[in-house]
Amino acid sequence: MNRQEIDKLVKQMNVDTATGEVNPRIQQVVVRLLGDLFQAIEDLDLSSTEVWKGLEYFADAGKANELGLLAAGLGLEHYLDLRADEADAKAGITGGTPRTIEGPLYVAGAPESVGFARMDDGSESDHVDTLFIEGKVTDTDGNIIPNAKVEVWHANSLGNYSFFDKSQSDFNLRRTILSDENGQYVAQTTMPVGYGCPPEGTTQFVLNLLGRHGNRPSHVHYFVSAPGYRKLTTQFNIEGDKYLWDDFAFATRDGLVATAVDVADEAEIARRGVDKAFKHITFNVELVKDKTAAPTSEVDRRRASA
Ligand code: MBD
Ligand code: FE
């Protein structure tokens, strides 16, 4: 069939058959995606077996709760970032810390504190480097933003995230820190290790068929929000990781590479109240002022909460 015949058929089956109230947006999307799917079946001469295997794949990925991981791994989530950047540019919104993907592992409801949070539960302290992360939240003119909500989450030394990894304590390595009166936030935590897709999982299954790995560099996620500013979803990825520019989820971006500096100075160690040398990362965040004409910076997606 050619596209005209396909579109006619799709319309006959899914538009002309309507007898109840139609959601025009959903109708538009369904008609377009079905037409594109039928066209792909035509162009690639997909067999019935191939089509059913595809549907079964999505059923399995959904059952394994890996569709968010798949969206990251196939670059769909990064593509949405590039689209959001384009939309912002078109609306005259520039500057500020770059956005990058949220990923599938956020959990709402983390403990909140002002200025400082210890993020780790201490269970890895004896064999993992301590990491201090600190930075200032400002607007794009450098004016400090006190009381900004800085939500931070990252993996443990095995690349695993609490909640999804039930061996970790509740909200381990997840905190909400409100910037203090100087716009400052400080997190004491442990060095994260890059995530790898479950080797037997549905996402790695398709990555294998594409000859791709499923690894991310070591990184720390952020949501930063404050009244009157656009919500920022971002992360820093840590210099020196072999996957820094070979991230299976394409999240590393210029401006989002952080350097973990070794600190061994005894006075600094004492000042921080720790008992060994540590690593230090500075990650300042610049928020962009909200405008009524701006595209939304909020993404509504299903998120875990505990
Ligand atoms: C992660 O930690 C992550 O950030 C993404 C995007 C995908 C899988 C695991
Ligand atoms: Fe992550």
TrEMBL record:
SUPFAM superfamilies: Aromatic compound dioxygenase (SSF49482). Pathway: Aromatic compound metabolism; beta-ketoadipate pathway; 5-oxo-4,5-dihydro-2-furylacetate from catechol: step 1/3. Residues 133-161 form the Intradiol ring-cleavage dioxygenases domain. GO terms for molecular function: catechol 1,2-dioxygenase activity; ferric iron binding. Keywords: Aromatic hydrocarbons catabolism, Dioxygenase, Iron, Metal-binding, Oxidoreductase. Gene3D superfamilies: Aromatic compound dioxygenase (2.60.130.10). Its cofactor is Fe(3+). InterPro entries: Catechol_dOase_N, Cchol_dOase_prob, Intradiol_dOase_C, Intradiol_dOase_core, Intradiol_RC_Dioxygenase. CDD domains: 1_2-CTD. Coiled coil: none annotated. Its EC number is 1.13.11.1. PANTHER family: DIOXYGENASE, PUTATIVE (AFU_ORTHOLOGUE AFUA_2G02910)-RELATED (PTHR33711), INTRADIOL RING-CLEAVAGE DIOXYGENASES DOMAIN-CONTAINING PROTEIN-RELATED (PTHR33711:SF7). This is Catechol 1,2-dioxygenase. It comes from Acinetobacter gerneri DSM 14967 = CIP 107464 = MTCC 9824.
